[in-house]
Amino acid sequence: YLQERDPAARQWAICIFDDLVEFAGPASAQFAGDFLEGVLAAVRQNESPDLRQAAAYGVGIMAKNGGDAYADFVVGSALPAMIEQLSKPDARETENIFATENIVSALSKIMRVYGARLGADMPALLQTWFAALPVSNDDDEVPAVYEYLVQVLTEQPDALLAGNDPRALTHLVKSVVQALAICNLSPELTQALLTVMQSTMASFDDAGKAALWSEIPREQQQALQSKGLI
């Protein structure tokens, strides 16, 4: 199926290989020669967002579960291809949003696991990832993204916020509010993001807070109120 012209058939094949890596872990690497090129081709193609989503998910699983055996492929081949997809002007269009959010989630996993290998590229990658927030459509991928966001803000906030740059702070608040308003998060992650939102808002004076809050869509404000978060 990985060689079929029908993108749905290739998607099914990649889903099987995704499962292989997820459940067999590093032991799956003995079969990697049979599917890595197919996964990379699927990330790069533009005809089928569903196929691209399955491939991006698989790359994230390689980072999370595959161990060092997949590091060269993930960092050297798949990562540049996924960054290229993020840069496309239609990346957040409805038909592409799930594929894009799987790419953002995969970047979270790659940076968490292979951060040492990224070296001098890590700051730019963090900024690319941060700019791609928010994610709120794929419930399975949202926790990985926002748990990593909390981790980075705890360990190295300047990597994202550039000395409390107002534009970065505004983007952070909007991204966190959207996740809190739309997604079903664990109580622990909800509290962590609520703390992020509150501490970030405290960086603004009253006029700045009012201006920022006016940019939050009314339905998101109402969702936060209905959940008892504000």
UniProtKB/TrEMBL annotation:
<protein>
    <submittedName>
        <fullName>Importin subunit beta-3</fullName>
    </submittedName>
</protein>
